[in-house]
Hints:
The protein is an alpha/beta fold and about 160 residues long. The protein has two domains: about 1-80, Rossmann fold; about 100-155, no CATH class. It has helices at about 10-20, 30-40, 50-60, 70-80, 115-120, 140-155; strands spanning about 1-5, 20-25, 45, 65, 100-105, 125-130, 135. It has a four-stranded parallel beta sheet with strand order 2-1-3-4, sandwiched between helices. A three-stranded antiparallel beta sheet has the order 5-6-7, with no helix packed on it. The mean pLDDT is about 95.
Amino acid sequence: MKFLTDGMLGKLTRWLRILGQDVKYSVNFNDAELIALAKKEHRVLLTRDFELYQRSAAKQLNAFYVEAKNETERLAELSRRFAFPLQFDVTTSRCPKCNGKLRSIPKEKAVGKVEENTFENYDEFWRCTHCGKIYWRGAHWGRISAMLEEAEGKLKLS
């Protein structure tokens, strides 16, 4: 499944990428460019713009109007509709910033590329194959896990 998100869904884009979804996003795409790109690359267009959704649907594009008001509800809504799990899996996760794939790297490859304290306290690191950003399961990991658990709970309630 490949997605394309409009400029109103930047935060959701990052969450979907963390979950391993291939998501193209730019705040610079206008409606015509979004429609053309969705068609050309066979991507599902996700939008909060009802008029854009209607125009896309009229052109027989696979589009989805995101109705939920917050990220946990949006993740649950999309997981339900497109049948993807709300679980982080480093083997499929993508870079939240650029959509590149993440690959595990030996700890020594992170030397000088992360803060010294981070290097000393963590053993697992991943690097984006596209932009080179390095990731690890830091203090933010609890918030990520809590958000995904909350979204999973909303999914089970519906």
